[in-house]
């Protein structure tokens, strides 16, 4: 697994950036490599750990899943000692995430999907952890953010002092913004002017087809496209529904 572990010129907090948990999500992988180049000279405070392709076997096979055991790495956080993908994720949590204040997990549309810039920052119940996630959400530049009750993964990482955010975009440039904004949130680089905060939703649903229409309180964040995209192809209209009280 490729690793860029960069110490800044001044002391400060640690940011973990991962991409390629889904092995076929290329814009986020590209952005992670670009950030490793940008910050290679240590022109920041703290420690920047970048794992640009977590699921190397999936990347090689062109699949979201890890073809070795058929599991999605994102669903195996915080990992365990049993099985290839759970062991991989356990190692990432123990060796990297538990030393980090923030884990920015970059995702983009897999093959046959389209996605709007959005992020998941679930509630851990630990005030300082959740405040950090909210601070990042406000400046992330996403259209929509989802904040649901935290899973085991969110709560386990919170115990280690790490805020977990999953950020989506089809666009490599937006992924670069996510990384910069995460570093600004932690005070690793100077802040720039704030961005309009996104709408926050508390419930989502995966949609299988373009005909699927969101119901009350649900948000459409991505959809399957009928034909696999070719370079320059128009993928369709962005659509989302606001949550209703
Ligand atoms: Zn993904």
TrEMBL record:
Cofactor(s) annotated in UniProt: Zn(2+)
Record-level Gene Ontology MF annotations: hydrolase activity, acting on ester bonds; metal ion binding
Pfam family, one: AstE_AspA_cat
SUPFAM superfamilies membership: Zn-dependent exopeptidases
Span of domain Succinylglutamate desuccinylase/Aspartoacylase catalytic: 11-162
InterPro entries referenced in this protein's UniProt entry, alphabetically: AstE_AspA_cat (IPR055438), N-alpha-Ac-DABA_deacetylase (IPR053138)
Stretches that traverse the bilayer: none
UniProtKB keywords: Hydrolase, Metal-binding, Zinc
Protein name per Swiss-Prot or TrEMBL: Succinylglutamate desuccinylase/Aspartoacylase catalytic domain-containing protein
Organism: Candidatus Adlerbacteria bacterium RIFOXYC1_FULL_48_26
